[in-house]
């Protein structure tokens, strides 16, 4: 610790991945995550680690699949359209119980969309995205320093639960510069050996990595193992932050860049005598539904604000049910909501 | 004369790297011969303890059961990318991918070409039987002109579906590959030659020379709707006219 630098979000994610012991990184260029790729291109070879600019997003995620099988910490990064292409590989990673980190610096969609910040990939990240019954852990940083911390955490959780983990940020977090205290590098040799890895069957029976079985009963059992793991993750890994909620009459639910803006809105509202609080999910899957439900029991209105048409809003309403009013305000296409605009939405619903 | 069992010499045995798991291949299919050759090669080079096989989607999807070595089942067409990931994670591992014509030369076209173009130090076994065997005998990118398949019931018409793709010749245009060859398995002579080629392809990797590709013309009597013996003759008389045997690149 103690190393304080002014860095872009994309660079911080890349540097945190290196410090988390990422030994193989594979990616395809796409805006607005290019600096991440470029940072890795410079620094991975210098450390004797693997950097490949893959021929496609499909190739990149499948290189990740191979490196993860061999037992090393590995990562790929992209932005929305590229992440769509990676879905096949993510489903295979989940099905084969392989740890890997996938970074999505979300941009406006659908289709080619634009290159401005957005949160329109929440459904894709948290509800599956690829085929089959699976989830991955999804972490939503709200500041540049937190993007670094959550990148470190992503590698830890991926290994602990043998699952792909997604860091879901957006173009604003990727491009913004902030002073950052970089996390201390981990010692790669101190990581526990992955007994399941296909790293050469020396003195043991062969290890096989696969995600299929043609016998439905066997495949059902494989699915049940995944589901059991997801229940463990839901029980142990929910993360969220509450700001000024203890006396609040109304609360905003927001994650990522929007949560950061909402913190300003809380200050503005409080200055005007509106008792506004903020509930910020940090894990988007597992979603902190129970904590939100508990908060809603003492608050009349929970306003969801997103840079989407209301994707997380569905999880909010599922958690709160009829317990409180659940209005929504969102922007789309890469438009970032201003604090003033959010405040006016708050005022519509406050007292 | 009584047989002296005690002093009998064993002259033929299952390679140590080949398991006794039941084959899922059809009678007359060449995958079985090829599987044995690969296992034998792994034995001869004494690399079983550091070999990782990448198996495809298709008839060879169960191939992980047949080798006494680590194995990974890859998504359709992505075996060369997965092999890249494994090899780069640990260059000491001996990594081979085993891919059919649909896997390698159709859905995996980009991964196949670019792994070769990077000169990944891996061994690729490309099984060309001109048909999709597992899914029900559909047209492959390598199907011959006029070949009847379940998706070209009138025969492959190049005006509609293009020509058989000579993928190994495409790979051979690249600067990086050290060994690209096409082999067959329809008689003893060709099995011996293919065995030599596969050993060379693995040896290149052990010696860190770079990318090797062995294309193998294989029979699919089931989907060709031929007797196994006729399928073998068909390769010699017909298939070889489109796909000539021999080395295309040999920089080893």
Tell me what the structure shows.
The complex is a heterodimer of chains A (351) and B (252). Chain A has 351 residues and is of the alpha/beta class. Chain A folds into two domains: 4-236, Rossmann fold, CATH 3.40.50; 241-349, Rossmann fold (3-Layer(aba) Sandwich), CATH 3.40.50.920. Chain A is 41% helix and 19% strand. Chain A is built from 13 helices and 15 strands. In chain A, strand 2, helix 2 (34-46) and strand 3 form a beta-alpha-beta unit. Chain B is α/β, with parallel strands linked by helices. Helices cover 36% and strands 17% of the residues of chain B. Chain B has helices at residues 31-45, 79-89, 101-107, 109-117, 158-161, 167-172, 188-206, 221-224, 228-242, and strands spanning 51-55, 70-73, 94-100, 123-128, 131-132, 138-139, 179-184, 212-217, 246-250. In chain B, strands 2-1-3-4-8-7-9 form a seven-stranded mixed beta sheet, with helices on both faces. A two-stranded antiparallel ribbon of chain B has the order 5-6. In chain B, a hairpin with a 5-residue loop joins strand 5 (131-132) and strand 6. The longest helix of chain B has 19 residues, at 188-206. The chains are: A alpha/beta (351), B alpha/beta (252). Chain A binds chain B through residues 23-24, 26, 50, 52, 54-56, 58-60, 62-72, 74, 88-89, 92, 96, 198-203, 206-212, and chain B through 48-52, 54, 61, 64, 67-75, 78, 81-90, 92-93, 110-111, 113-114, 118.
Keywords:
heterodimer; A: 351 residues; alpha/beta; Rossmann fold; seven-stranded mixed β-sheet; 13 helices; globular; B: 252 residues; two-stranded antiparallel sheet; 9 strands
């Amino acid at each position: 610790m103690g190393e304080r630098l002014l860095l872009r979000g994309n660079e911080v994610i890349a540097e945190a991945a290196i410090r988390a012991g990422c030994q193989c990184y594979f990616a395809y260029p796409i805006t607005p995550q290019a600096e991440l790729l470029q940072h890795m291109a410079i620094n991975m070879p210098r450390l004797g680690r693997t950097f490949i600019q893959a021929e496609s997003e499909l190739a990149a995620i499948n290189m990740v699949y191979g490196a993860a099988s061999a037992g090393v910490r590995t990562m790929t990064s992209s932005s929305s359209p590229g992440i769509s292409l990676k879905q096949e590989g993510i489903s295979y990673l989940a099905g084969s119980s392989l740890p890997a980190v996938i970074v999505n610096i979300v941009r406006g969609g659908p289709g080619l969309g634009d290159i401005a910040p957005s949160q329109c990939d929440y459904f894709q990240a948290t509800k599956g995205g690829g085929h089959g019954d699976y989830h991955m852990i999804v972490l939503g940083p709200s500041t540049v320093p937190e993007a670094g911390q959550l990148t470190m955490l992503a590698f830890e959780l991926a290994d602990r639960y043998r699952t792909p983990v997604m860091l879901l940020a957006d173009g604003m977090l990727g491009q913004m510069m902030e002073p950052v205290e970089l996390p201390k590098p981990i010692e790669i040799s101190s990581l526990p050996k992955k007994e399941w890895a296909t790293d050469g069957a020396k003195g043991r029976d062969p290890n096989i990595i696969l995600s299929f079985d043609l016998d439905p009963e066997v495949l059902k059992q494989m699915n049940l193992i995944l589901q059991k793991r997801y229940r463990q993750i839901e029980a142990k890994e929910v993360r969220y932050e509450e700001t000024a909620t203890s006396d609040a009459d109304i609360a905003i639910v927001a994650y990522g860049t929007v949560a950061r803006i909402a913190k300003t809105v809380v200050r503005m509202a409080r200055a005007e005598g509106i008792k506004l609080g903020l509930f910020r999910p940090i894990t988007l899957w597992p979603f902190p539904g129970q904590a939100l439900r508990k908060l809603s029991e003492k608050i009349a209105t929970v306003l969801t604000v997103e840079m989407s048409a209301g994707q997380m809003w569905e999880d909010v309403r599922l958690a709160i049910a009829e317990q409180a009013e659940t209005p929504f305000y969102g922007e789309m296409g890469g438009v970032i909501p201003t604090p003033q605009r959010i405040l006016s939405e708050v005022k519509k619903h406050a007292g | 004369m009584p047989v002296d069992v005690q002093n009998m010499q064993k002259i033929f045995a299952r390679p140590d790297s080949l398991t006794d798991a039941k084959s899922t291949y059809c009678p007359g299919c060449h995958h079985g011969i090829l599987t044995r050759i690969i296992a034998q090669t792994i034995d001869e080079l004494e690399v079983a303890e550091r070999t990782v096989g990448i198996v495809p989607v298709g008839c060879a999807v169960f191939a992980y059961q047949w080798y006494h070595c680590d194995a990974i089942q890859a998504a359709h067409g992505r075996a060369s990318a997965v092999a890249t990931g494994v090899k780069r994670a640990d260059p000491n591992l001996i990594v081979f991918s085993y891919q059919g014509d649909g896997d390698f030369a159709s859905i995996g076209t980009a991964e196949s070409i670019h792994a070769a173009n990077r000169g990944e130090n891996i061994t690729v076994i490309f099984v060309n039987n001109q048909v999709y065997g597992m899914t029900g005998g559909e047209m492959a990118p390598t199907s011959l002109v006029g070949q009847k398949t379940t998706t070209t019931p009138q025969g492959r018409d190049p005006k509609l579906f293009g020509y058989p793709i000579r993928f190994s010749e495409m790979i051979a245009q690249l600067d990086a590959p050290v060994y690209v060859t096409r082999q067959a398995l329809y008689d003893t002579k060709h099995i011996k030659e293919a065995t030599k080629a596969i050993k060379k392809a693995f040896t290149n990797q052990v010696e860190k020379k770079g990318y090797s590709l062995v294309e193998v013309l294989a029979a699919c009597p089931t989907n060709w709707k031929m007797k196994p013996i006729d399928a073998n003759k068909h390769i010699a008389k017909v298939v070889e006219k489109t796909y000539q045997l021999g080395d295309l690149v040999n920089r080893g």
